[in-house]
Amino acid sequence: MMRRYEVGPLLNLRDLGGYPVRGGLHTKSGRFFRSDAPANLTQEDVEKLNRLGVETVIDLRGDGEALHRPCSLAGRDPFLYSRHPLLAEGLRIDGERDVPQMYFSMIKNHDAVAAILRRFILTKRAVLFHCTAGKDRTGVIAALLLSLAGVARNDICADYQVSYTYIRAIFETIGREISSFPAFLGLSKLEYIEGFLALFEAEYASAERYMAAIGLSRQETDALREKLIG
Asked: Which pLDDT value is given to residue 208?
């Protein structure tokens, strides 16, 4: 099972399939892909994504980011593109200690997350969801999906942590060009995701209860889980 895919300029395109879950099953491959922004893709790159089965494309970025680096799949057949910003405009991050709370604020945007998950449920083929680097907003949605599937905590954390390995060149370049750029914003440390998961569990106890809190029915939650591990 291939976990990371090489498609054009994408550095962090990964499959959520192959993780063990309760009952001896595994998350399905070729259903959910997480990625950095699919911008500046060639026709060959686009065709590769189509061959991977990608149908629905969910952009988690804000207006400015999407305008600065337009998604190459937006408005392009056969992809169904929609944008659902997860990060509040003007959100202030003073230091590393704020990262878990920043992540938690994303899933408190119940309407946006519910809309994203319903898009996932309606997709017949595969989903590709992305932000800019494929680390923070994408990582939060990935953690939510893997939690619902019943993936072990260590695997959820590992799926998050590997992002920096793939995208560090981006942030090393930014650091050289912008001396004031906080280095921690490019990292995917264990304590960031563990801190988020602790806040999530303290508030909602489980992924199933979170789904109910944001308005998904039991049938919708079961359908999403079926796509993940069916």
From this structure: 98
What contacts 24+ positions apart, CB below 8 Å, involve 108-115?
A: 110/213, 110/214, 110/215, 111/214, 112/84, 112/85, 112/86, 113/86, 113/141, 113/144, 113/214, 114/214, 114/215, 114/216, 115/84
Task: Report which of 184, 198, 176, 7 is spatially closest to residue 97, judged by C-alpha positions.
Answer: 184
Which residue bears the tokens 């619902």? 148
Distances (CA, A) of 58 to 66, 119, 125, 202: 12, 8, 14, 28
Q: pLDDT value at position 147?
A: 98
pLDDT value at residue 59: 98
Contact in structure between 69 and 53 (CB atoms under 8 Å): no
Give pLDDT < 50 ranges for the chain. none
Residue 91: per-residue pLDDT: 65
- Are 188 and 135 a contacting pair, CB within 8 Å? yes
- Contacting residues for 178 by C-beta, under 8 A, at least 6 apart: none
Dist. CA 77–CA 37, nearest whole Å = 18
pTM of the model: 0.95
Alpha-carbon span 16 to 75, nearest angstrom: 25
> What is the spatial distance between Cα 48 and Cα 167, in angstroms, rounded to a whole number?
21
